[in-house]
Structures are given as structure tokens and as C-alpha cells.
Amino acid sequence: MRIDIITIFPKMFAPVLGESIIKRAQAKGKVKIYLHDLRNYTLNKHRKVDDRPFGGGSGMLMSPEPIFREVENIKSQSHKVTKSQVILLCPQGKRLNQEIAKKLSKEKHLILICGRYEGVDERVRQYLIDEEISVGDYVLTGGELPAMVLVDCLVRLLPGVLGDKNSLKFESFEGNLLEHPQYTRPARFRGFKVPAALLSGDHKKIENWKKEQALKRTKLRRPDLLKLHKVS
User: Fold this and answer.
1) To which CATH superfamily is domain 172-231 assigned?
2) What pTM does this model have?
3) For the segment 126-179, what is each residue's pLDDT rounded down to a tens digit?
4) Does residue 103 or residue 231 have the better pLDDT?
């Protein structure tokens, strides 16, 4: 997979892209991630990427010209990729979930546009992007943090990135259930014991306990997911 990220704050990404699983995935050649400074594609001497909205209103809007120019340039550079999926990170988009992440993880090329200010010129939405994604029903100062969340979410789904191939199978939201409670050594800590089922050595008993606990936890914390679980 190739991921290109368009932002006016590229330095924000170094701590995230240069550590942990994302760093290892890049080292293994599972993903290539490129950062692009939107200001490099402006045509004005002040490298200004925003302007006042027509019709008035508070704040500033991101201008369409540098965004169009940068996306077109990225596509011309990645000519070996037959199709690029252009995504705008913004509050109006679909709320990111595991199903969307799994779908996007199968794409060969993603171009992520980090929105800023009061948003982008509507022509970007109408004529340039393929999808809008939000990471939740709250307001952030820009699309950089959502882009980091999306990249982290996608990269770990790529084949060969996680060391344990079963890790993804038992995570929260797989099968629309939250993950079951987990314990590690010591088996007894300050008088608190690990459930007997997990210490039994009986694989069937352990599996049944995990399923039962996952259902119980989902019912308590996210009952909305149970409807989806029944459908799937």
C-alpha cells in the first residue's frame, strides 16, 4: 500500500509514523507513506492556502487550487498505481469504524487530505475526493490527528504487519463484539484472582468463557453493536 498525506503541518507526523508498528511496517516494505506540504503548491508569494468565504461567514476556507494541484501531482508520480482513493478527513464524513478500515486496507493507494480552518472549498468535495471520513462526533483543529488515527488503523490490518496472525481475529469490534477481559501473570495479585476458566487448560472451556465474556461486555458497554452482531 502507498499512502500520501497532504497537510500544512507535516512535522506533526514524525512521532507517529516513526515509531512502533507503523515504523516496522514501512521497514518491511508493507506500506510506503509520503508527506506533502500543501504550502509548496500555492501560487502566491506568501504560500497562503486559505481565503475568506464568499457570502460571508466566520473563519477562513482552504482554497481549492493548491489541493487540486497537489492531488494531481501525486497521481502523476504514482503512475504505477491504477486507482487512487482520495479521502478528506473532516467532521462531516462517515464515522470511522472497523468495517471501513478493513475496506480501505485493501486499497493500493490512498491520498489523505487533512482539512483545516472552517473546512475546504466545496469544489474539493464535489470534484476531487472519493470519500470523507470523520473519527468521531467532536471538533478538532484539523485533519492531522484523524489522518494519524486512520493510518494506524489501516496499517495494522495489512497482511504480515502484526507478528501474531491471530491478533486481529480476537480484537474489539471484530464480529461487532468488544474484546473479552484479559489477564497475565501473576495468577493471584493482591488477593485478586484470574478467572478459573483461563487457568483450566481446557481449550474449549476457555473459548466458551471468552465468547460469553465478550457478549456480556458488549451488552454492558456497547449494546448498539449487538444488533450488528446478530445481523452478521
Assistant:
1) tRNA(m1g37)methyltransferase, domain 2 (1.10.1270.20)
2) 0.84
3) 999 999 999 999 989 999 999 999 999 999 999 999 876 555 555 555 677 888
4) 103
Per-residue pLDDT of 87-124, as tens digits, reads 999 999 999 999 999 999 999 999 999 998 888 999 99
Rg value, the chain, Cα: 22
Q: Where are the alpha helices (DSSP H) in the chain?
A: 14-17, 20-27, 64-77, 98-104, 122-127, 144-155, 196-199, 203-221, 223-231
Q: How far is CA 84 from CA 108, 147, 223, in A?
A: 7, 16, 36
C-alpha separations of 230 from 26, 53, 176, 182, 214 in Å:
37, 46, 9, 24, 14
